[in-house]
Amino acid sequence: MTKNKAKVGVLLVNLGTPDSTATGDVRKYLREFLMDGRVIDFPFIPRWMLVNLIIAPFRAPKSANEYRKLWTDRGSPLLFHTEDLRDKLIAKLDPQTYVVEMAMRYQSPSIEDGLERLNKANVKKIIVLPLFPQYASATNGSVADKVMEIARGWQIIPNITFISNFVEHPLFLEAWAELGKEMMQGQEYDKYLFSYHGLPERQIRKGSVDGYCQLSDKCCGNYTKKNQFCYRGQCFHTTRLLAEKLGLPEDKVLTCFQSRLGKDPWIKPYTEDIIKELAEKGVKKVLVFSPAFVADCLETTVEVGEEYKEEFEELGGEQWDLVPSLNSNDTWVECVKDLVLTNT
Ligand SMILES: C=CC1=C(C)c2cc3[nH]c(cc4nc(cc5[nH]c(cc1n2)c(C)c5CCC(=O)O)C(CCC(=O)O)=C4C)c(C)c3C=C
Ligand SMILES: [Fe+2]
Ligand SMILES: [Fe+2]
């Protein structure tokens, strides 16, 4: 084998997080994130006014406090778990063939720097893996958009492959099942809640081919060729596959959506409503999975693990356990390795 053989570049991309818990850094992060037209999909002027005059000024101090609860000596969990995943992946791939970089869609390290390093390594191909299991225009779509914006400026554009989603990957499901079993330790819960990040309903309708998705069971209740990119459909599908793998009784499993922002309708059912309903029915013991995230972050540790737990307990619930995210779990690293090898 010649030493000069062109390599394959791999770019792992997660969402992004503030550089620190200072309110100014959180504001900067929120501005970059929410000014993305795929996240707040309004025309530029109304988006600019909403983000810069309302959301960023009022939300930044509150979010900064939340980030302080989450921050560690290594900084934001979302960032250091992604670094650990990258390092474990590098150790598993042949260095003669692969160059691996990680980036964040917003803030740092930037996609631009990651791509420039891959370009300088003269790779023949780049595999972009957005670290979001279910496709959404606001996440996977936005990563693809940014990569193409940068590559557009290059004289030579190598082959670029985007992995759009991986909900059906057996090792993704296996990794979640392992973590779930570890948490359960053989005990039974009254209910198993699968809480996914929400999305405005409008964004699902915009992506619906021929108006197929009306946010009803007809589309989202099944996973077929017709709705292969419906985020809500992919979330329900993830729940079904995981519940089956874990042998959970169907009548104890629920899918819901968290983290609504703004007044527009987001995809339902809302996690807050489900918590109230469960408490009213006298449910005491709940195990929660958050499989839209592959690393622990503000949305899992603080929102699900602390705030929703408090709400449930205040309403009479007794036990609310959150399954930790995939982070740099070895089976998850194997999953990422397999995604790379099968897309090379
Ligand atoms: C599954 C992945 C995600 C989707 C889909 C998504 C859509 C989406 N998010 C917002 C607004 C916010 N999200 C925030 C945090 C956040 N979101 C994701 C993932 C998805 N977002 C992650 C991993 C995180 C945590 C980042 C971290 O640093 O830990 C926040 C900021 C936090 C806060 O102030 O509460 C906002 C705001 C919208 C509007 C949206 C879809 C349109
Ligand atoms: Fe989000
Ligand atoms: Fe749907």
UniProtKB/TrEMBL annotation:
GO molecular function, one term: metal ion binding
Binding site for Fe(2+): 197, 299
Catalyzed reactions: heme b + 2 H(+) = protoporphyrin IX + Fe(2+); Fe-coproporphyrin III + 2 H(+) = coproporphyrin III + Fe(2+)
Lineage: Bacteria, Pseudomonadati, Bacteroidota, Cytophagia, Cytophagales
GO CC, alphabetical: cytoplasm
Protein's name in the database: Ferrochelatase
One GO process term, biological-process aspect: heme biosynthetic process
Function: Catalyzes the ferrous insertion into protoporphyrin IX.
CDD domains linked: Ferrochelatase_C, Ferrochelatase_N
